[in-house]
């Protein structure tokens, strides 16, 4: 019974990959190579510019990490090294509540608050822009980084801290030069989880970044843009409509396979790095 339960996840994963690979093969064998490198991503017009959605995903992921990494790591350091037990018991659940907020809610928060009150106040950005979407994805990612990083730092033995204090180091020196290097494998795992979460986010970008019907290639984060996940969501709004538009339906599987390969590559690299730097105490 336990073996069957374990194999179920393997079978489901294999079926998912098979469904992606089958339609992806149909797409790559029938699409013209020139259509994969055009001025934008407009699948209904036969324009499947891959760089538009890949660069859009990279820009929004970079913005999200720029927001989430410093805040998440700072929160983790405070909870693990400085906060009193009573404060930690209150702050950590409150911080993790952010992870339970539906992403569509954060999308509307980005559209109605982050974009007009923060981004547009200091720039000439449009209402729908990648900067606001990236900041909202960063807010969504903060709890992951903070929680996993805090667990990694708390797993460092107190004997290392006591040895550092015995050599005359202060609290901040012990934290930066002893605890963080000792917990680096867990910190890297937290960052990779954050990258995977940010690059796979759909609804925040779908609501706040605009360009739902398609997008011209652009690196301007103050304007609308489209990611791989938003491209799938916008085109799959009605399956009957997608099927009637040439290779548009198959292009969704191609984008999904591309996203799957990128995420798997990140996880393999992270796993190899973690295995190399992991320390056992």
What is the average per-residue confidence, as pLDDT, rounded to a whole number? 85
In total, the number of domains comes to 1
Number of helices: 12
Strand content is under 5%
User: What radius of gyration results from the CA coordinates?
Assistant: 22 Å
Distance between the termini: 35 Å
Topology as H/E string?
HEEHHHHHHHHEHHH
Task: Give your account of this protein's structure.
The protein has 281 residues and is mostly helical. The protein has a single domain, classed as MetI-like fold (Orthogonal Bundle), CATH 1.10.3720. It has 12 helices and 3 strands; from the N terminus they run H-E-E-H-H-H-H-H-H-H-H-E-H-H-H. The protein has helices at residues 2-30, 50-82, 85-100, 103-122, 130-154, 158-166, 171-182, 184-199, 203-208, 228-235, 239-243, 248-277, and strands at 40-42, 47-48, 215-216. Strands 2-1-3 form a 3-stranded antiparallel β-sheet. Helix 4 packs across helix 5 and helix 10 (228-235) packs antiparallel against helix 12 (248-277). The longest helix is centred in the N-terminal third of the chain and has 33 residues, at 50-82. The protein starts with a helix and ends with a helix. The mean pLDDT is 85.
